[in-house]
Amino acid sequence: GESVGLHLPTLSVQEGDNSIINCAYSNSASDYFIWYKQESGKGPQFIIDIRSNMDKRQGQRVTVLLNKTVKHLSLQIAATQPGDSAVYFCAGTKTGANSKLTFGKGITLSVRP
Amino acid sequence: NAGVTQTPKFQVLKTGQSMTLQCAQDMNHEYMSWYRQDPGMGLRLIHYSVGAGITDQGEVPNGYNVSRSTTEDFPLRLLSAAPSQTSVYFCASKQGDLDTQYFGPGTRLTVL
Q1: Taking CA atoms, what residue in A is nearest to B105?
Q2: Which residue of A56, A63, A91, B23 pairs with A76 in a disulfide if CB–CB is 3.0 to 4.6 A?
Q3: What are the pLDDT digits (tens) for A63-112?
Q4: Å from A18 to nearest chain B CA?
């Protein structure tokens, strides 16, 4: 089966700095990846996704990079703000696998004022 | 749109009791799923449905039943609660296989 995991459990950054959150996956058949943000007491919220035919995708202040060779993806947050403090999850699946997303364990991002 | 709604927000059960966690979505999404979230474990898929009348097992289905009689509702039933089912439960929905998945606010369940 697939496992999706995050390298570090916590990340502390200074407000205004860029944040980079890393994630590794084990199933080379996975072709769709998603980053979620979860604030305390709330459900996960979609941030950005990427398909395996791309190696980079940009959103508003966020960029996801995918390296299929080493089965690694990262989430970059530009100019990190206090409102970015949350737990971040990566998730992966294979096209046609319906709802079978495999989630990583989560990393806590803490933004210092 | 209210999105994905879940009730109750909190529940305490005794071992052996049964209950149903409710989930509803008003986005006419075909796909609905139930996850549980435990500390250090991330989210794990319990059951999912790709349309009304169709359900299937996820990663951790034991001890849970689901049904999907309508597009809007996807209740999760605990037949005989066990302390190992203490967790936070999230319902999610999406329109298609690779579409954005929307999560509900969660139900925090404690089994004594």
Answers
A1: A43
A2: A63
A3: 999 999 999 999 999 999 999 999 999 999 887 766 578 888 889 999 99
A4: 25
